[in-house]
Amino acid sequence: MIDPTGPATGAPNHLLNRLFISQMLQFSGAFETRGLFGGGAGEAQFASFLRDEYANRLADRVALLPTQPSRTPRAP
């Protein structure tokens, strides 16, 4: 979930940054269950919520996609 009061409010690419980071964290294997010390089915079901929250926090601090340029006309 995006915090509307966060520092990246109004950034057009914040959602894309968050989704990209979430997917990269998913494929990194950082949230895989840990054998006998894993949380079982509950951990597998709720790991995506933790991963998305990490991605949201990272997207507030890191801008992977460039911001859109301003739409001011160029001087001749």
Structure overview:
The chain has 76 residues and is mostly helical. 47% of the residues lie in helices and 0% in strands. The chain is built from 2 helices and no strands. It has helices at 14-28, 41-61. The chain is rod-shaped, with a radius of gyration of 17 Å. The model is unreliable at 1-5 (pLDDT under 50).
Blueprint (SSEs and pairs):
Blueprint: H1 14-28, H2 41-61
Helix pairs in contact: 1-2
Our count of helices gives 2
Shape: rod-shaped
The count of DSSP E runs of length 2 or more, i.e. the number of strands, is 0
The stretches of 5 or more residues where confidence is low (pLDDT under 50) are 1-5
Helix content: 40-55%
- What percent strand? under 5%
Distance between the termini: 44 Å
* Multimeric organization: single chain
Main beta sheet strand tally, sense and closure = none
Fill in the keyword field for this structure.
rod-shaped; 76 residues
